[in-house]
Amino acid sequence: MHYVGKTALITGASSGIGESFAHELASRKMNLVLVARSEDKLQALATQLRDRHNISVEVITADLSCEGESLRVYEEAQARQLNVSMLVNNAGFSTHGAFESISSHKDHQQVMLNVLSVVDLTHAFIPGMLAKGEGSIINIGSTTSFYPLPRQAVYAATKAFVLSFSEALWIEYQKRGIKVLALCPGATNTDFFNAMGRDVVTGKHSPQKVVRVGLLALEHNRHYVIPGFRNSFESNILPRLLPRAVLATLVGSVSQRAFK
Ligand SMILES: NC(=O)c1ccc[n+]([C@@H]2O[C@H](COP(=O)([O-])OP(=O)(O)OC[C@H]3O[C@@H](n4cnc5c(N)ncnc54)[C@H](OP(=O)(O)O)[C@@H]3O)[C@@H](O)[C@H]2O)c1
Question: Which domain holds residue 110?
């Protein structure tokens, strides 16, 4: 796979897995478009990456949970003549708690960001990739893409969408030059749990490891990858062995014990 001189657009690039994608792709000499809400963090990261790697880095601030913002990001990229050949749909968050205790507005924003911004940005950027006959799309799913998760019901459902959507597009575009990958991490050491208001006790991977596993899987044209042997075993094997009601009960009680 060729990275040098090509341009990647990364959503949620201001922290965590998205920021790690920015560092890793910059070290492979890709030009970058960084997208998130926190302008200061994005500008600081852009300056650091330009200085360190001698690449072009553009910043587009956007709240991708708002209707129309994904299209505005695409139009802004077009206006700046940014020729995006890799799209990393990474921005996302999770609500947590008994379903009735979560504000419906927050869950609405969660679906807008985790699901609709992924679909809208993919719609926007895929025609340009098809015209060039090459491109790649990395959608960040989760181990929860593989099972329902009580107390994170909407989050797990959004990530099931991401996996299903990515695998279908992987088939549609595999003979047309576009690679599509669902990168499905388990617990990862980022601000994700702070944003959720709960933290897990153990077993977090580094975002750097998650990103490297993802890029290797993309290079091998995998349709999905789950970083880490234990996460991979649990997400691949348990849903095939257990009745769905048992699976949901089990992961619900395991995940409750995992939180501090
Ligand atoms: N950490 C984990 O354990 C874990 C496990 C599996 C999957 N994931 C997935 O990995 C992805 C990245 O999460 P992370 O762990 O790196 O968490 P994080 O450190 O909290 O990063 C989330 C990123 O998304 C951006 N973001 C949040 N809301 C946004 C909005 N409305 N519009 C635009 N950008 C927004 C944030 O930037 P701003 O606040 O500046 O907007 C930030 O850059 C998410 O899709 C998450 O579901 C995480």
Answer: 7-258
